[in-house]
Automatic annotation (TrEMBL):
The keyword Ligase does not apply. Pfam families: ABC_tran, TOBE_2. It comes from Thermacetogenium phaeum (strain ATCC BAA-254 / DSM 26808 / PB). This is ABC-type quaternary amine transporter. Keywords: ATP-binding, Hydrolase, Nucleotide-binding, Transport. Residues 1-237 form the ABC transporter domain. InterPro entries: AAA+_ATPase (IPR003593), ABC_SmlMolc_Importer (IPR050093), ABC_transporter-like_ATP-bd (IPR003439), ABC_transporter-like_CS (IPR017871), Mo/tungstate-bd_C_term_dom (IPR008995), P-loop_NTPase (IPR027417), Transp-assoc_OB_typ2 (IPR013611). GO terms for molecular function: ABC-type quaternary ammonium compound transporting activity; ATP binding; ATP hydrolysis activity. SUPFAM superfamilies: MOP-like, P-loop containing nucleoside triphosphate hydrolases. PROSITE patterns: ABC_TRANSPORTER_1 (PS00211), ABC_TRANSPORTER_2 (PS50893).
Length: 354
């Protein structure tokens, strides 16, 4: 079994449930990190979070916190906070009693604890809601209460399962900023599950992508976004331009074959590989450039608000470019317009063909 560095460590965790299986997950998360678990719907993100919380038993593998093996500890002994997408507040209790519920269960409700409760309520700016009942709260207010309820217990780790996905866009953005602020102020280790890559980019110190029950990539959000290491991750982060090819060595310089053309790349890999580049990194030009320039014809244009997606057919293959809709050159493009796609070597991500 592989052991990892980190404060919270998952070592070779496997869990079969119905037809689905979490497979050999090894992961180390540091104290104070904001760690995001990303992945498409049904990838096993919630199951993984529930396994970390101790709500799901494991079939194989171990969970450690510091030097302690907590694999068989029940959830309450782990002292992890859990915030669900739908908040799961008690409908018959007002906000104050919802927040204090866990403290009362632990028989901790005293004047000292009242001070902590007041601090959390202030931190989340919800003092005006204390007498209200969950049914009268907006989605964002409910989620703030759910966060307060988890934080007042001073958890070792705060687990957040899609905490923003039930909210409308302005509320989602406000609460996303709030999470960032809470993390900065508390320094708590937070593990946040989402399928929204933008959320991950804005919140995460590091992230893991899970695909089909297995870890596909762990790293800084920037790395995952710009340097996906598998086709599945490239597709999940919206790379759109992903091709299989082979590396060609010429006088010490490396190229990948694209149809009859060759594109200069920066890579240590050899042989059969995949390469990808983001649509935002494709430059469309009416004139030929000396390096990494593919001649094509505009096939399709779709305006998507601030951005416009242009598909250029190059040697029978679609290359996708994303341009700012107010980009002057946009107005000269129509289906059938000849155009050059320029893809600088440094934006081409070459990864193994697995
Ligand atoms: N109790 C269960 N019994 C059988 N299958 C289950 C059970 N719980 C989850 N699954 C299955 O396990 C898989 C992973 O579920 P999970 O909820 O972890 O996915 P997810 O990545 O969180 O997806 P989403 O983003 O849609 O919430 C799914 O195919 C789901 O149907």
């Amino acid at each position: 079994m592989r052991m990892n560095a980190g404060y919270l460590r998952l070592c070779g965790i496997s869990r079969k449930i119905g037809n689905f299986e979490l497979r050999n997950i090894s992961l180390g998360v540091e104290r104070g990190e904001y760690f995001v678990i990303l992945g498409p719907s049904g990838a096993g993100k919630t199951l993984l979070l529930e396994t970390i919380a101790g709500l799901q038993r494991v079939d194989e593998g171990e969970t450690w916190i510091g030097e302690i093996n907590i694999t068989h500890w029940p959830p309450e002994k782990r002292q992890f906070g859990f915030v669900y997408q739908d908040c799961a507040l008690f409908p018959h209790l007002n906000v104050k009693d919802n927040i204090a519920f866990g403290l009362k269960v632990r028989r901790l409700y005293s004047r000292i604890v009242q001070k902590e409760l007041d601090d959390i309520v202030d931190l989340l700016g919800i003092s005006h809601l204390l007498e209200r009942y969950p049914a009268t709260l907006s989605g964002g207010e409910k989620q703030r209460v759910a966060l307060a309820r988890a934080l007042v217990m001073k958890p070792r780790v705060l687990l957040l399962d899609e905490p923003l996905s039930a909210l409308d866009v302005p509320m989602r953005e406000a609460l996303r900023d709030e999470l960032k602020r809470l993390h900065r102020l508390t320094g708590m280790l937070m593990i946040h599950v989402t399928h929204d890559f933008t959320e991950a980019m804005l919140l995460a110190d590091r992230a893991a992508v899970i695909v089909d029950g297995a870890l596909a990539q762990v790293g800084y959000p920037d790395e995952i976004f710009n340097r996906p290491q598998s086709r599945a991750v490239a597709e999940f982060v919206g790379t759109q331009n992903v091709f299989q090819s082979k590396v060609i060595n010429q006088n010490g310089k490396k190229f990948v074959q694209f149809g009859k053309s060759q594109l200069a790349v920066e890579t240590d890999l050899e042989g059969t590989v995949n390469f990808s580049f983001r649509p935002e990194d494709v430059v469309l030009s009416s004139s030929r450039h000396p390096v990494n320039c593919l001649r094509g014809v505009v096939d399709f244009i779709a305006r998507q608000g601030l951005f416009t997606r242009v598909v250029v057919e190059v040697e029978g293959v679609g290359v996708v470019a994303l341009l700012a809709s107010n980009n002057g050159s946009m107005y000269a493009l129509n289906p059938g317009t000849p155009v050059f796609c320029v893809i600088p070597p440094e934006v081409i991500n070459v990864f193994p063909d697995k």
